[in-house]
Amino acid sequence: MKNKIALEEHFAIELTIGDSEVYARPEVWAGLKSNLLDFEQQRIEQMDAWGTEYAILSLNSPAVQAIPDPRRAVEVARRANEVLAEQAARRPTRFGGFAALPMQDPEAAARELERCVKEFGFHGFLVNGFSQVGDERTVVYYDAPRFADFWAAAAALGKPFYMHPRDPLPAREPIYDGAHWLTGPTWAFAVETSIHALRLLSSGLFDRHPGLQMILGHFGEGIPFNIWRVDHILRKGRRGMPCEKQIGDYLRSNVHITTSGNFRTPTLLSTMLEVGSDRIMYSVDYPFEKHEDAASWFDHCEISDNDRLKIGRDNARELFKLP
Ligand code: GRE
Ligand code: ZN
Fold first, then answer.
1. pLDDT tens sequence for the chain (323 residues)
2. Domains delineated in the chain
3. Measured between alpha carbons, how far is 165 from 125 in angstroms, rounded to an integer?
4. How remote is the CA of residue 241 from the centroid of ligand 2, in Å?
5. Is the CB of 184 within 6 Å of ligand 1?
6. Ligand 1, atom 10: nearest CA belongs to which residue?
7. In this structure, are residues 281 and 5 in contact, taking their beta carbons and an 8 Å threshold?
């Protein structure tokens, strides 16, 4: 399929590139680094070769979220967003942007988001999970009361946000001791990200802002496959949960799910059965994943061409109001 739109495509700047090194074997790091820093060579060649017309780019992980000093987090976010804005302005038909935000300072994050949307035309923001604030061991999740005004400002802009993975802090996750191969994208990303997403979905955030839309990658980080059980348990007793509806109701009205890094037809079909094809969108997760792997699967998987067009392109066009 030509003219696909992809939404979880990453870049880095010199200030953040180091964060990605732990995720690469030494022999592939030079290539990954060069792919993250590049905007005009292999990034475009790969998009062209595998039929991605337009990519919404976002900063690598965890980057700004792992900078405990709020002033420094603000600085790095601004710098990254300016680099992205410049690249998107040079190729407006190929690149759009998601803002990186210094969630360590919710007021500054709201101001930066507004600047990115109004001045740079960004399509929303992407956060790499929780933020460390003040010191390396103190973390905040965004269902905390201190984010109330931030969410009101974000919802007023009418743009979606992407909840993207990061690893849990080692100090908080002895569960991975002696099994480090399960950290990162193998499994820990999905655990960390699905819990954060479930926190937001069950917090009442989407009752206060019914138009707010959250995007989850990797086929929803496991949530679609367990949503029946989550709600089944909570139907027996809500255990103090403050939201008004069942979590699956928000999943079907406030969440969009992408194919990033999870190129598998049974998984796609199951997600279509759970949330419908209107809420699924193509993504690659470049350069951590290959366009070739994503497209050679997606372009030929056994779904109707109607659904392929929706998932590959039209759902994103509609969500982001693209021409
Ligand atoms: C990502 O940001 O999507 C990512 C990483 C590291 C490894 C794999 C991956 O940051 O998909
Ligand atoms: Zn990613």
1. 999 999 999 999 999 999 999 999 999 999 999 999 999 999 999 999 999 999 999 999 999 999 999 999 999 999 999 999 999 999 999 999 999 999 999 999 999 999 999 999 999 999 999 999 999 999 999 999 999 999 999 999 999 999 999 999 987 779 999 999 999 999 999 999 999 999 999 999 999 999 999 999 999 999 999 999 999 999 999 999 999 999 999 999 999 999 999 999 999 999 999 999 999 999 999 999 999 999 999 999 999 999 999 999 999 999 999 99
2. 4-320 (3.20.20.140)
3. 14
4. 30
5. yes
6. 61
7. yes
Identify the H or E element spanning 11. Answer: strand 4-11
Pocket flag, ligand 1, residue 23 (CB < 6 Å): yes
Is 299 in the active site? no
Q: Please give the single-letter amino acid code of residue 173.
A: E
CB of 217 sitting under 6 A from ligand 1? no
What is the CA angle 143-146-147, rounded to 5? 55
